[in-house]
Known about the structure:
Layout: E1 21-24, E2 29-31, H1 32-37, E3 52-54, H2 61-65, H3 70-122, H4 125-128, H5 164-170
Antiparallel strand pairs: 1-2, 1-3
Amino acid sequence: MAVPVFCNSCLCEPRNPTHRFSLTSCGHVFCEICLEKGKKDECLVCRTACRTLVLSKQISPDVQSLFMGLDVLCKKYSKEISQVSEFQERHRKHLLTYHKHKIAKLEESLKKVTQQMQQIQCMKPSEKTTPLPFSSTSRNPFSIPSRKQNVYSSYSLHSSRPSTSETMEAMEIDPVPSPMRKV
């Protein structure tokens, strides 16, 4: 059932097809006779400035919906809401499928890395380390002893004076020049 239309001033209903009704921007309805009696661009009820729109079958659906019955509106909008809801549900399912696939790939990668780590941990200690080209006992003539190393450890116990090469090995070299030292 549609909402009955009547003039908010004289309360007449549109019985005669020659009577046209208008809707104001402030939300009041007037017949053309009452509208002509009032001031132009002013509402007869609330006295505010307003614009008018002649009611006809050609008005926008938004304005037409103001005069529809609630049962018709509910059916119309429930159908639209159902369509929107179905669209959003399909969209959510698509996104969920994508994330499930991505999680499955990440879990598979994690499983492979975990297995590799377990294999490395199960290896024998001799398999873990690779021999270095210079062992700690062999001497590299180009190596510089670290500061922590005892500089006198390379001296021979039997000789009274260290050789020149032994003295050079025992010297610590400071790669950063001192600000006090002249270059």
